[in-house]
Write a structure and sequence with these properties.
Length: 182
């Protein structure tokens, strides 16, 4: 029996509802899907690779055939190392196409046996990007419908460290009041 294993490489800084939508779609067409976070020393990320990994692991915990990993170096080398035969990438709009096509063709040149599979996220995520989410969060607008709840929480903590203590105090108050009632 042929089992298809794919990698879904990206920066995921932070992971968004668009990424999750694509992971769900990918998990339905591949037997195994590895969400692969690039450890890119040139970029100055908002979240550490460890944080992004934790967020993605929590987001994908309900998918039996999805795992999360990190890699550095070439995507094609990583794909071959883990035994994947396909690279999953999302295309939101025509503006993504040129960059994605260039990357897919270069990857094909480097590793002809590896296929790139493009999928479209749901329409409501077609304008969503990690860059915009970072910008919006930094400028104080609501990001609640753009990212999963735990990512929103992490973003709030990044932007305002006091938020962490406020959330901790809130859940402490809730658990005390539950104890009182019982
Ligand atoms: O989420 P992103 O930032 O759009 O993901 C881009 C990514 C990680 C897929 C791309 O930068 C990549 O594959 N980097 C690894 C290095 C590599 O293989 N470069 C050649 C690509 S043709």
């Amino acid at each position: 029996m042929i089992r298809t294993k794919a990698i879904y490489p990206g920066s995921f800084d932070p992971p968004t509802n668009g990424h999750l939508d694509l992971i769900e779609r990918g998990s339905k067409i591949f037997d195994e899907l590895v969400v692969a976070i690039l450890c890119n020393p040139e970029k100055d990320p908002l979240f550490s690779v460890a944080d992004r990994r934790r967020m993605l692991e929590a987001m994908t915990a309900n998918f039996d055939n999805v795992s999360v990993d990190t890699f550095d170096g070439l995507t094609v080398d990583y794909a071959i190392r883990v035994g994947a035969t396909a690279v999953l990438r999302g295309i939101r709009a025509i503006s993504d196409y040129e960059y994605e096509l260039q990357m897919a063709l270069m990857n094909r040149k480097l590793q002809p046996g590896l296929e790139t599979v493009f999928m479209m996220p749901a329409e409501q995520y077609s304008y969503l990007s990690s860059r915009l989410v970072r910008e919006i969060a930094q400028l104080g607008a609501s990001i609640e419908s753009l990212v999963p709840e735990l990512v929103a929480q992490k973003l709030h903590e990044k932007m305002d460290p006091a938020h962490k203590f406020e959330s901790a105090a809130q859940s402490d108050r809730k658990s005390k009041s539950r104890k009182k009632k019982s």
